[in-house]
């Protein structure tokens, strides 16, 4: 106890999206999902439980969080304390190594790093699947950031069996992503609120879980075949099916911005010219391009004609969590 532990976790982008909760409190999803962990974007989190503290002290990128802003982290620390049978408060310091204003979700890497650092600092020795279950309680996408490469979150039915497992940690074919940063502002509708609204009101939502499960099976086969075109096609259609549920919600909403459509058109044009590239999007306007390293220079050259060079971030597949 009282040891200071630092863990690093990388963010991930889903190729088959998690969208909608079956149990909002435990964060059990309506469908299984599959992601790619990314190398350049990660969070380092240091946790130390200290008997001298009279409340949790949480800072992100050097900024001390207020009680309200730190609520999700404190609730997560309560879970860890409960598991470890301790009452001590903790000092948590987190640094996001995602370019500022990237608008890429940091909750995946953030809660995965917190789960790893806090559990170890509290004296728990959790296996990777147990860490994945714990990270899930902070943020759904964090469930997958425990592992590197392609990762599958098996939805399960309860707290014990809803967890991620590596699908292919060491990727031996050419695949990477380009993140196109279009809008640095905080998302208009947080993923948590967006999902809840869609599940409750979209008449199309019922079609989502079964179609996502079918896409997941096809995606796993495409990865085993190392078929970049099939992976890209499946990821793109899966993402657009997810986004269709927001337009059909009541009230309707969308994560698309005008620049999102512009980026999509550029990708489609590149593809019509024989370059393999596909797009995916999460609960925000930024577009992520799925492509090979080989064709990345040609894609970047085209994108640079429309977007600032420093808004185009190339991301190779990344590793799972590590203690540093
Ligand atoms: O767990 P959250 O709140 O980060 O939700 C993630 C939802 C999506 O990014 C849209 C899809 C996904 O599977 O990551």
Layout: helices, strands, pairs:
Layout lengths: L4 E12 L4 E3 L4 E2 L3 E17 L7 E4 L2 E2 L6 H14 L5 E8 L9 H15 L6 H9 L13 E5 L8 E6 L7 E5 L10 H11 L6 H17 L3 H20 L10 H15 L5 E4 L5 E5 L4 H8 L8 E4 L6 E2 L1
Parallel strand pairs: 5-7
Antiparallel strand pairs: 1-4, 1-14, 2-3, 4-7, 4-8, 5-6, 8-9, 10-12, 10-13, 11-12
Helix pairs in contact: 1-2, 2-3, 5-6
Bound molecules: (3R)-3-hydroxy-3-methyl-5-(phosphonooxy)pentanoic acid.
(3R)-3-hydroxy-3-methyl-5-(phosphonooxy)pentanoic acid binds next to helix 2 and helix 4.
Write a brief caption for the model.
Residues 9-164 form the Diphosphomevalonate decarboxylase-like N-terminal domain. This protein is 34% helix and 24% strand. The protein has eight helices and 14 strands.
Number of domains as seen in the coordinates: 2
Distance between the termini: 18 Å
- Indicate the low-confidence ranges by residue numbers: none
Q: Topology as H/E string?
A: EEEEEEHEHHEEEHHHHEEHEE
CATH domain fold name of the largest domain: Ribosomal Protein S5, domain 2
Number of helices: 8
Largest sheet: 8 strands, mixed
**Spatial extent as radius of gyration:** 19 Å
How many β-strand runs? 14
Percent strand equals 15-25%
Proportion of residues in helical segments: 25-40%
Q: Classify the secondary structure makeup into a structural class.
A: alpha+beta
Shape: globular
